[in-house]
Write a structure and sequence with these properties.
Order of helices and strands of chain A: EHEHEHHEHEEHEHEHEHHEEHH
Largest interface: A-B, 57 and 57 residues
Oligomer: homodimer
Largest sheet of chain A: 11 strands, mixed
Shape of chain A: globular
Strand content of chain A: 15-25%
Structural class of chain A: alpha/beta
Distance between the termini of chain A: 44 Å
Number of strands of chain A: 11
């Protein structure tokens, strides 16, 4: 397959992006097309002593920055690495687009250039979410593609997330949970109450409401919420986890006894901290658009770029977009039958 | 002053409630009126060998359970400890009501029996929120009194929370932050965007938007959000923090070297964990009603009950309700002047 990589997006572009591409290329036989300012990409390829044939450069002279307004950037910066890359994906010149650039612009660009899957009202960002009890990570959707969501959007997120987790992660019959104020049916806002009923009557493996204290405990494979709540959950978890690791570390340096103890436990703590390391996880798929797009963390290092490419490939290889399309057609037929 | 205590509310009532009252009485000279089933309260007082005069019993034969529907419970269970206690507070037979009972019922009961402060559309639950970087705790409002909030509600939460933190906690000019998707002005939902403008033009010390990763880092004294988000933030923080402490503990037991290290660092970790211990903090005030009400954690132990009583007393002593009333009148005048 051909991976289209946004060479100019993110805080560490193009350095870490190109380095990550070189590292990924060493492990796969697929092609990587880096879109961006040719001289800069070329320079980085040289710095990484890359001389292979797997990686090639596609010129794009503009850059969409983190400060750019999403809609305006997509419409005006037509020669940006993001817009050029998305257009290549649309035209079949590659199979997947990976970017660490402006999240809002990437979601808007994917929607405008690739188009939404029929039946999907709002595309969503599906982020990998750690299990703080030490289990395997789960998926949080929507992680912030939209700031407001209606009940049917939450159902769409659940359908898409469940398909992705089943097809790309290989988990059978993924458990879907709805973020809510409490576990009981009938809790929450008018939107979560309606979404509960929709999820309950769907074919999904809906395990009910999930409240704050259980979100991080691996009680479901797909955690469904609106993008505002999802964004808060994701960043809060990262903030709390990293603060506590730091507190633990400082506390271990408190006195001589604990310092000696600290040295003895250091490697165990490092192993633990890695579980909360987004660099290991790969990127977050943009779900609900007509081709595979992966969003990387804005401050991605080469390691994160490599993970996003390698771990994102099944999004294209397993035809997840086609499967979601088919699912939405089935839902449509089901609704029509119900209405008759 | 006279503290009215709900003897029957919460998972550990009446045992831990009465024990906490006895422990609190030993440290203050104020009266504590325990409302509940007299034989049960009497029995617990005897078990705690209490023979003083500070604590007395007010009979109420019914109990509002955690499963009761809030509005129905308040309207029908008129001889419950909660309804009797709130009526006593309304009638001036005590200065503050403290309960570990059904949160929804307590908020509804406070609103219906005590009435809202003029100008306050929605009362709020103001919870103490830990600073995971190790600083002093802050206040989160609304922690779940309402599941949906409009922009003016968020402004009310900010006004009330700021007053409480200033008058009861003694922090000058408290910093107010708005939970949002990102730090930039113009981020978020239509509600947070409007609230941002209202907060910006208020007399409050508004420090702007606070995103997920900073919420727990002590960047503001009053963290403002809708009750749905507040409930998720509060429970998620607790869930993540406790999971990580457990993971750290388990990781320290991994091998002999780390076991020895673990023993050496144990006391430091315990000190650290206490910072996340709600029992130390006291209860959460219900703000925006015409008299002081404090909500304790449903699973409060005697230690938590004692903290809630002792740390809640300034809510009554400092006339916070009167100050909020005056503030709302000032806001009203200000709005009228603006409109002229």
């Amino acid at each position: 397959m051909k991976v289209i990589l946004d060479g100019m997006g993110g805080d560490n572009a193009p350095q870490e992006i190109v380095k990550g591409a070189v590292e990924a290329a060493a492990e796969i036989s697929d092609e990587i097309l880096i879109v961006g300012i040719p001289e800069e990409i070329e320079h980085e390829l040289k710095r990484n002593k890359y001389r292979g044939e797997q990686i090639s450069i596609v010129p794009a002279q503009e850059v969409i920055t983190m400060e750019d307004s999403p809609v305006r950037a997509i419409k005006r910066k037509t020669d940006s690495s993001m817009v050029v890359g998305l257009n290549m994906l649309k035209d079949g010149e590659g199979d997947m687009f990976v970017s660490a650039g402006n999240t809002g612009a990437l979601v808007v660009g994917a929607r405008l250039i690739l188009g939404r899957i029929r039946g999907i009202d709002r595309p969503a960002l599906a982020s990998i979410y750690p299990d703080t009890t030490g289990g395997r990570p789960n998926m949080l959707v929507d992680a912030g593609a939209s700031s407001e969501s209606k009940a049917n959007n939450l159902l769409e997120y659940a359908l898409m997330g469940s398909t992705f987790v089943e097809k790309v992660w290989g988990r059978e019959n993924p458990r879907v949970g709805l973020v809510n104020l409490g576990t009981e049916e009938g809790k929450g806002t008018s939107i979560t109450k309606d979404a509960y009923q929709m999820l309950k009557s769907s074919h999904l493996n809906f395990v009910g409401n999930v409240e704050g204290r259980d979100i991080s405990k691996g009680v479901c494979d797909v955690i469904v919420c609106d993008g505002f709540t999802g964004n808060v959950i994701l960043k809060l978890t990262e903030g709390v986890a990293l603060s506590i690791f730091k507190l633990v570390k400082n506390s271990l340096m408190g006195n001589l006894k604990s310092k000696i103890g600290g040295l003895l436990v250091k490697s165990n703590l490092m192993t633990l901290k890695e579980r909360f390391d987004y660099e290991e996880y790969g990127g977050a798929p943009v779900l609900g658009v007509n081709a595979p797009v992966i969003k990387m963390h804005g401050s991605s290092t080469s390691k994160a770029v490599k993970s996003a490419i390698l771990r994102g490939m099944p999004y294209a290889q397993e035809n997840v977009v086609e499967i979601i399309k088919q699912e939405m057609l089935d839902v449509e037929e089901y609704i029509e039958e119900e209405e008759e």
